[in-house]
Structures are given as structure tokens and as C-alpha cells.
Amino acid sequence: MPLEAGEIVIDPPGGGEQRSREDSASLLRHVPMDHYHVACAIIEQDGRVLATQRSEAMSLPLKWEFPGGKIQDGETAASCLVRECREELGVTVLVGEPLLPATHRYPSFTVTLYPFRCSLSGGAITLHEHRSLAWLPPDRLGSLDWAEADLPVIEQYQLMTGVQGQENA
Known about the structure:
By secondary structure, the protein is of the alpha+beta class. About 20% of the residues lie in helices and about 30% in strands. Strands 1, 2, 3, 4, 5, 6, 7 and 8 form an 8-stranded mixed sheet that branches. Strand 1 and strand 2 (about 50-55) form a beta hairpin. The protein starts with 20 loop residues before the first helix and ends in a 9-residue tail after the last helix. About 25% of the residues are buried.
């Protein structure tokens, strides 16, 4: 029986059709992955940018990221940022200039980030989900262990602000 794109057949043990490892690997490459659309806030204040560290319980544990979250059905990326910053950090943000979206494929899922330059407009930061936070000058953002999806966002931000990043300097 021919397979449709994205289908995988698992034969019961001791029966069914024999497949080589190459055939199985080929089939696995065609299994569709989850694709998340995530808005992220590059929150600027006093010449510094906010970075948040994911908790041990989150996927990509202890990696640094820009705060934000999954865009819900019927929600704009900007309204998602307002909601997520309120939920995750207890603050209100003003959503400003968008950057270009950046897509990254992890082994088990794909994420497209929709970054925006933002500023704080109310509240005091309280971490509800993250382990830690850091305020860094734009040229020092690369000194943290970022989630891979955020790296092109950092590069784009540094280019648009005329800052040259430093690595662990």
C-alpha cells in the first residue's frame, strides 16, 4: 500500500513487512513536526535589553530567550506580547517596531519568532515562569547561552541598532 506524505507505518513485532534502516529513516523525515508561531519582546530600557532564562521545567531548559509566547488563534503578534508579558513578567509593554520573523528547526519542532522592539509601560518585573533575568547592553547579548531560535533575532537587532556583538568578552 503506498504511503501518503507525512504518514508512517509501524509494523507489529514478528510480522509484517521488513524495512531497512534507510527506509525507516526516510519515512521518519516525512513525519510532520509541530510548528509554533511565537511573538517575542526585545524590551529596551536605559540602553539595555531584557533577557530571560528558561526554567529547568521548561523545554530548552536554562536557555536564555526574549520573553514572549505562542500566538493564539485570532490573536495578533503584538497583542500576544502584551498578554504574555503580563502573564510571564507581570508588566505592561508598549509594542514598537517589528523585526523580520525568524524560523528555526529544532529536532522535534519548528518555531517562527516574530520579534518586536518594546518598552516597559507599567508594573514591576516578577518572574512567574522563568528562572532568571538579565539586563544587558545590546553588544553583550551574545554572552548568554541563548535558545538557537533567538540567535538570528539577536543578530538582526544588533544590525538594525548599529551595534556589533561581542562573544563572551
